[in-house]
Structures are given as C-alpha cells and as structure tokens.
Amino acid sequence: MVNALEINPTNFPPARITTISTLLNVILPLAIGIGALLALAIGIGAGIKIITKGDNPQEVNKAYQTLLFVLLGLLLLGLSYFFVSLVGKILKVNLL
Is 9 within the bounds of a domain? Predict the structure, then answer.
C-alpha cells in the first residue's frame, strides 16, 4: 500500500507559484523592501557618524559620501520599481 501526498495550492503554498509573473510578484516587492530597509540602516549609521565624528573633516566627508550613495541607491530602487511596473503594463501582466 502506497500513501501519496497530493500536492495542491491549498496544502502546499509553494505550489501556488505556477508562472514567472507569480514568482516575480513574490520576489520583487520583497527585494525592494529589503533594499529600502538596508538603505535606511546605512543612512542612520552615516548620520550617527556625522554627529559623532564632527571634529574630523575626513570622516565627516566619508559619511556625507555614504549618505549620497544611500540616496542614489534609493533613487535606483525607485526607478527599478517604476521600470518593472512599466514593463508589466506594456506586457499586460501584473508584476507587482
């Protein structure tokens, strides 16, 4: 006697991912959210460094460069979100 487990979307959640667009619906918002949280943490660290290293101009300049890179990274995240949304609308697929 063989007992087999039937795999369907109700008892096995990964079975709900049947197409690439469904997979992207899961991965892209998660990746963008993690990137934004990482940028927030790095930005807070740079702000603390600006406050604590105020007497050392080289360290303050490094912290300002870090903040600039954080802002550029957030801009890149926003543009990637816009680009994925645009591609989804062109292909008439719900990607986000």
Answer: no
